[in-house]
Amino acid sequence: MNDVTLCLWYDRSAEEAARFYAQTFPDSRVGAVHRAPSDYPSGKAGDVLVVHFTVLGLPCIGLNGGPAIRPNEAFSFQVATDDQAQTDRYWNAIVDNGGQESACGWCKDRWGISWQITPRVLTEAMAAGGDRARRAFEAMMDMRKIDVATIEAAVRG
Fold first, then answer.
1. What is the pLDDT of residue 1?
2. pLDDT tens, residue by residue, 46-59
């Protein structure tokens, strides 16, 4: 077991979410699935309670804790992409599977987990600072899914 594992709260759909992530992202997989040994507030004995999975190498646990706690944007996965094709693939997989678009490269999967699909060209421009960062930032502010060509053009000025 790792020293730190990210625990995500789901309402009865942790295994479904974990399988979706494993199919969508490289270096992702579903591990152990544990069932509740007895009834609990949001389920019955034998229901899937905890799912161990990995997303892009990050160890996670999905906890089927019920509807009491909902995910929000205070937490998100930030996924660095190399090009527009990879950006499109991840973004479209999330949004087209019952997810929801947001602004500036953010989207939400159908379970309410937020994702930032962020091309490296954008993070590199922001890290450079100065006019390059300002131009990239201003271009990004008008986007939902990040358009790599537009960011590259903005960076060139």
1. 66
2. 999 999 999 999 99
